[in-house]
Amino acid sequence: MARKQKFLAEDPAEDVTMPLTDPVEKPVMAREQILALLGAIEDAHDLCLMCIGLFCGPRASEALGLQWKCWTGEALMPHGTAYEGQFYKERLKTKASKAPIPVPEPIRPVIEAWRALCTDTSPEALMFPTFGRGERTGQAVPRDGKNFLRWRIRPVSRKLGIPDRLVTFQVMRRTMGTDMQNHGTLKDTQGALRHASTTTTGNVYVQTLDANVARAVNSRAVAVLEGSSLDEKLGLKGRNIRPAPEETVEAQIAI
User: Fold this and answer.
1) Cα 142 vs. chain centroid, distance in angstroms?
2) Close Cβ partners of 202 (under 8 Å, ≥ 6 residues apart)
3) 180: closest CA among 70, 63, 61, 54?
4) 3-class DSSP state for residue 131?
5) What is the pLDDT of residue 68?
6) Are 226 and 205 in contact (CB under 8 A)?
7) How far is residue 126's CA from residue 80's CA, in Å, rounded to a whole number?
8) Domains and CATH numbers, the chain
9) Are strands 129-131 and 75-76 parallel, antiparallel or unpaired?
10) How far apart, in whole angstroms, are the C-alpha atoms of residue 109 and residue 100?
């Protein structure tokens, strides 16, 4: 630019050779790894959060900032994000990030099973809280994504021989985007991941796109979970669950 504007007579970098760089690795999880990991998780809270990460593809900050008012029964409507244990109301990465996150039909019972056990399911309550410390002792606060994976999930995945580099929310999101190529169009993938996309021209097109996104997300989840025992895990118990009458517990186990 300086040479173009006549500030320099010659390009001082003309003889500079750009160094060779290795391509950036972009790993994904295999179907067998996904099924093995979900099958080994024994906590209802952890299972629900991982299912949302693996089959809905939210960013880590979006998943950890989910509140119960986000859950519509068919989709998750983001109302904020969480980062390093802090909740940021209505702060999302882009305008496209405010779009609903489609939840595949096989994952909806997992969310409902966790809601039946969660201690606080009021609209403003976090779906995946932890307990605050220091000045926030006694408060429900957002989880730190790295700590959740480090202490809750990786001890399980390591026993299965799954490398730590595959157990991240970014890899889960990339895996979903990669798999979606076999279950929908590129537009469907963009819609599911809520990336910025080309300008739409009318409400009818947007409605059609939403329906296609839901079908594509559903198709991918069904294909991955085919033959798995996820339904058998809906009676899991875990941490931070509400005390329930004996008959309620029996009913939950019978689901």
Assistant:
1) 15
2) none
3) 54
4) strand
5) 97
6) no
7) 11
8) 31-240 (1.10.443.10)
9) unpaired
10) 18
* Residue 175 to residue 164: CA distance in whole angstroms: 15
Q: Is residue 232 classed as helix, strand or coil in its secondary structure?
A: helix
pLDDT at 169: 95
What per-residue confidence (pLDDT) applies to 248?
A: 43
**Residue whose structure tokens are 């999302």:** 92
Structure tokens, 169 = 């929310």
pTM across the whole model: 0.76
pLDDT of residue 251: 40
Instruction: Catalogue the long-range contacts made by 188-191 (C-beta closer than 8 Å, 24 or more residues apart).
Output: 188/212, 188/213, 188/215, 188/216, 188/217, 189/216, 191/99
| Structure confidence by residue, pLDDT tens digits, 6-53 | 666 666 766 677 777 777 678 899 999 999 999 999 999 999 999 999
Task: Return the closest-CA partner of residue 162 out of 50, 84, 65, 24.
Answer: 50
Contact 69, 80 (CB under 8 A): no
Nearest to 193 by CA among 181, 207, 205: 181
**Cβ atoms within 10 A of the Cβ of 221, count?**
24
Q: What is the mean pLDDT of the chain?
A: 82
Question: What's the distance, CA 165 to chain centroid?
Answer: 16
Inter-CA distances, 193 with 20, 21, 100, 170, 206, Å:
32, 29, 10, 12, 15
Between 27 and 253, the more confident residue is 27
| Angle (deg, nearest 10), helices 203-225 and 186-193 | 90
Res 41: pLDDT = 96
Distance, C-alpha 7 to centroid of its chain: 50
User: Nearest CA to 121 among 106, 98, 99, 140?
Assistant: 140
For the record, the structure tokens of 182 come out as: 């076999």
